[in-house]
Design goal:
- The structure holds two protein chains of two kinds.
- By secondary structure, chain A is an all-beta fold.
- Chain A has no helices and eleven strands.
- The model of chain A has no long low-confidence stretch (mean pLDDT 93).
- Chain B is mainly β.
- In chain B, 0% of the residues lie in helices and 57% in strands.
- Chain B contains no helices and eleven strands.
- In chain B, the strands form two sheets. In chain B, strands 2, 4, 5, 6, 9, 10 and 11 form a seven-stranded mixed β-sheet that branches. A four-stranded antiparallel β-sheet of chain B has the order 1-3-8-7, with no helix packed on it.
């Protein structure tokens, strides 16, 4: 049972445009959500997170939106840059337990 | 600042051989430590986590084991590797609880022949 789903395996965007990466979850106990970025042959790097008490968190070019009723979150990158090309993982955790459940990831390609 | 080290970066092992992957964290005390595996075309699967020395929780039944002999050292082992053990193994650490971000090492690419 996949509790965190990233249904699109890939996304291609023109440089300077907005990238929107989507993530859905099924476990209503999840209350903390994170996005990680991963380059080939490297470990994931933490990007941004959001608590369930918020519906938006912004950090520079990155904004995460959370829609609890739809059990959906999204990562917006604007403007997109070629260096943003990587695999992006959505992850979630429940309560005081810091274990993370990850989605399968989405490969973002930003075209110059 | 905190850093996490994993080694080796790549490893090729024959089926049936033993395995030992090591992970150490610097710059923090009593971290939570985690081992993940990323199989080809799949997401990150949590294998083990530890909240303290000698405390190991296993998430999935498998051919692997983990140990935490020191506060900032986490070891992933196997007595006999299977072909299905191939993958990208990642160690991570976090402070406290409540979903604080986990920070990952650069991983070990394990190939079983």
């Amino acid at each position: 049972d996949q509790q965190v789903k990233q249904n699109s395996p890939s996304l291609s965007v023109q440089e300077g445009r907005i990238s929107i990466l989507n993530c859905d979850y099924t476990n209503s106990m999840f209350d903390y959500f994170l996005w990680y970025k991963k380059y080939p042959a490297e470990g994931p790097t933490f990007l941004i997170s959001i608590s369930s008490i918020k519906d938006k968190n912004e950090d520079g070019r990155f904004t995460v939106f959370l829609n609890k009723s739809a059990k959906h979150l999204s990562l917006h990158i604007v403007p997109s840059q070629p260096g943003d090309s990587a695999v992006y993982f959505c992850a979630a955790s429940a309560g005081a337990n810091s274990k993370l459940t990850f989605g399968k990831g989405i490969t973002l390609s930003v075209r110059p | 600042s905190q850093t996490i080290h994993q080694w080796p970066a790549t490893l090729v092992q024959p089926v049936g051989s033993p395995l030992s992957l090591e992970c150490t964290v610097e710059g923090t005390s009593n971290p939570n430590l985690y081992w993940y595996r990323q199989a080809a075309g799949r997401g990150l699967q949590l294998l083990f986590y530890s909240v303290g020395i000698g405390q190991i929780s296993s998430e999935v039944p498998q051919n692997l084991s983990a140990s935490r002999p020191q506060d900032r050292q986490f070891i992933l082992s196997s007595k006999k590797l299977l072909l299905s053990d191939s993958g990208f193994y990642l160690c991570a650490w976090s402070t406290g609880t409540g979903g604080r971000p986990q920070h990952f090492g650069d991983g070990t690419r394990l190939s079983i022949l």
